[in-house]
Structure formats: structure tokens, C-alpha cells
């Protein structure tokens, strides 16, 4: 079975590595300490502190495996080579929503770097995928779960 590559910026890769380091080190130690303290309370069959700590331990170990897999399959994009002649992974695009006459700005990122609060959208999301390849001045109609949105591309930057 072929592993799926994960496109990511160097900044995104660094964040994943930092999270993995935190989980493997301080977080694992904290959970082990909580489990030990809960065991010291006696019977673990009805010990909610023990159950909570074991559940968190399972979650952390799962996240560690997930991060290790993502790092193994990571393909770092070189943001230095990105051009602004068309929308692509790593660019920031300013659009006008033609229905509401409002400007919006999106940073096109890989799926692991999505952050709606920062307007960072995935290149595989309907809007991200719909904008990729288009140029300033283009009008783009994109099918989204609630219907169709229509954007005019105003600018593309790094």
C-alpha cells in the first residue's frame, strides 16, 4: 500500500516536530505520574482519576503515532520558489465574494496546517482546490456544500 504524501511548509513541519517532542517528553511523563498517583489511591476498578489518565494516555499515544506517520510522509514545499502569477499552495489570495461584495483573504496550505481562525485553508478543500491555478482578474465559481460561491481574484502574494 502506497503511503499518501503530506504537503507541508517548513513552518508547519516544525510545528509538528515540536508537538511530537512535547508529547513524547513532558506530556508522557505527566500522564505516567497521574497514573501512578491514581494507582496509589487503591482499587482502580472504580477510580475515575485512573480511568481519565489512562484515556488521556491512549489519546496521546495515538496522536504520537499519527504525528510520526505525518512526518514520515511529509513533503516540504519550498516557499522560495512560489510564484504569484497564479494561485498555488503557499500563496495568499485576496478575493471578492461577488454575491456579498466582500473581500476575503485565504492562505492556501496543506491539510495539516489548516486554521480557519487565520483564514488558512487546505489546497484540497472545495474553495482552496477551486482557486488553485487561477490568476488575478479571473472569476471563479466553486461548488461548496451549501451551494455555489463566485469569487473574483484580486491579488496573489507569497
TrEMBL record:
Residues 6-76 form the Transcription elongation factor GreA/GreB N-terminal domain. GO terms for biological process: DNA-templated transcription elongation; regulation of DNA-templated transcription elongation. GO terms for molecular function: DNA binding; RNA polymerase binding; translation elongation factor activity. Keywords: Coiled coil, DNA-binding, Elongation factor, Protein biosynthesis, Transcription, Transcription regulation. It holds the Pfam family GreA_GreB. The keyword Transcription regulation applies. PROSITE patterns: GREAB_1 (PS00829), GREAB_2 (PS00830). Residues 83-157 form the Transcription elongation factor GreA/GreB C-terminal domain. Belongs to the GreA/GreB family. Necessary for efficient RNA polymerase transcription elongation past template-encoded arresting sites. The arresting sites in DNA have the property of trapping a certain fraction of elongating RNA polymerases that pass through, resulting in locked ternary complexes. Cleavage of the nascent transcript by cleavage factors such as GreA or GreB allows the resumption of elongation from the new 3'terminus. GreA releases sequences of 2 to 3 nucleotides. This is Transcription elongation factor GreA. It comes from Orenia metallireducens.
